[in-house]
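User: Hi! I have a protein structure encoded as tokens and I'd like to know what sequence might fold into it. I'm fairly new to this, so please keep things simple.
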């Protein structure tokens, strides 16, 4: 149905997959910490605070950890992804309209590649 609507308006649909290896996904989620005062987000693996579990700007603020940022939640989220999202990606791949962007890099590089991928879809 979505394909039909897009075609009626002269648009073609495609998909962009930001591809991140599982071990990095796991570290991004389980390593995430945030400051309860300013909201700054840290990651114990990729962007650690200067002192363990304490905000760089608020030395009295102990960093928080969302209770659902754990290995079990990641597994559940990935199971949902495999069930609900993977078939759609397979569809776009079969029809030659899936663009893959390596996601294990810094945000600016990923963003630049997503912009390029989206432009290719037009
Ligand atoms: Zn802070």
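Assistant: Happy to help. Inverse folding works backwards from shape to sequence: for each of the 122 positions I chose a residue that suits the local structure. Here it is:
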């Amino acid at each position: 149905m979505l394909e039909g609507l897009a075609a009626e308006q002269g648009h073609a649909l495609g998909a962009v997959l930001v591809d991140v290896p599982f071990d990095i996904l796991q570290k991004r989620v389980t390593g995430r910490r945030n400051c309860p005062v300013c909201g700054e987000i840290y990651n114990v693996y990729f962007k650690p605070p200067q002192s363990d579990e304490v905000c760089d700007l608020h030395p009295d603020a102990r960093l928080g950890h969302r209770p659902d940022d754990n290995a079990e939640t990641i597994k559940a989220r990935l199971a949902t992804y495999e069930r609900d999202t993977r078939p759609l990606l397979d569809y776009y791949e079969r029809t030659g309209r899936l663009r893959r962007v390596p996601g294990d890099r810094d945000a600016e590089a990923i963003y630049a590649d997503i912009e390029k991928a989206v432009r290719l879809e037009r």
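A useful reference point when you look it over: Helices lie at 2-8, 22-30, 71-94, 107-121. Feel free to ask if any position seems puzzling.
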